[in-house]
């Protein structure tokens, strides 16, 4: 991927993220958000290139966004029912660590993108966060809160 294409992708994605969180959107906020997103895009591209990382995404991984769109409201509702009463009562909140083994036959550039994108998707749900995802093919360590399901984690890791 060329430097310019990568920079534009980052810039658009970051600007869209900014616009999605601002209410109401004014022209000044849009311009400031776009300018800040451009600076962040330059830093992101420069950092990745300085570290020598190569990413090779798979377009099928965009489907993880669909799972994420379902998981966020479902997890939020489930946690409100399961966890909030326990927290208000001063009791321990159940959580657990799950280890999931990623594919071992993946090219390094594809595995690097899976780790980056997968960490974002898994950590964006209210009931899970990626604790560790080593680059050497060791298992992903995922912390689940409450009686969270591992299905999204299994989808991302397989």
Automatic annotation (TrEMBL):
<protein>
    <recommendedName>
        <fullName>Sodium:proton antiporter</fullName>
    </recommendedName>
</protein>
<feature type="transmembrane region" description="Helical">
    <location>
        <begin position="7"/>
        <end position="25"/>
    </location>
</feature>
<keyword id="KW-0472">Membrane</keyword>
<feature type="transmembrane region" description="Helical">
    <location>
        <begin position="31"/>
        <end position="51"/>
    </location>
</feature>
<keyword id="KW-1133">Transmembrane helix</keyword>
<keyword id="KW-0812">Transmembrane</keyword>
